[in-house]
Amino acid sequence: MTVLSAAGNNQYANAFDEKGHRMFSYYLVKTLATSKPDSLEMLYKRVSVDVHDASSPKGPARLQDPQISGNMTVGL
């Protein structure tokens, strides 16, 4: 089993108002719809970079870093 979560401990999971979704959900669905990651680890890397970069301008209190735990070698 593998768990992808929107943010780390004590972090805020940001809304992405301009896209009409939460930030993590938006980038997760966008990555799955527009690219072909071959593993959960690759999916996580792409999503986490996008979420981190999009949340950075909101300031340190709104910085969001998605997390992954469990079996990261599962293929998609």
Fold and architecture overview:
With 76 residues, this protein is of the alpha+beta class. It has one domain: Alpha-Beta Plaits (2-Layer Sandwich), CATH 3.30.70. It contains 2 helices and 4 strands, in the order E-E-E-H-H-E. The strands form 2 sheets. The protein has a two-stranded antiparallel ribbon. Strands 2-3 form a two-stranded antiparallel sheet. Helix 1 (23-34) packs across helix 2 (40-55). It is globular and about 35 Å long. The model has no long low-confidence stretch (mean pLDDT 91).
User: Looking across the biggest beta sheet, what order are the strands in?
Assistant: 1-4
> What's the alpha carbon Rg, rounded to whole Å?
12 Å
Name of the CATH first level: Alpha Beta
Strand content: 15-25%
Major sheet details: 2 strands, antiparallel
Distance N to C terminus:
13 Å
Shape: globular
CATH superfamily descriptor:
Caspase-like
Structural class: alpha+beta
Level-2 CATH architecture: 2-Layer Sandwich
Uncertain stretches: none
- The chain-level mean pLDDT equals 91
CATH fold field value: Alpha-Beta Plaits
Q: What is the domain total for the residues?
A: 1
Number of strands: 4
List keywords for this structure.
Alpha-Beta Plaits, two-stranded antiparallel sheet
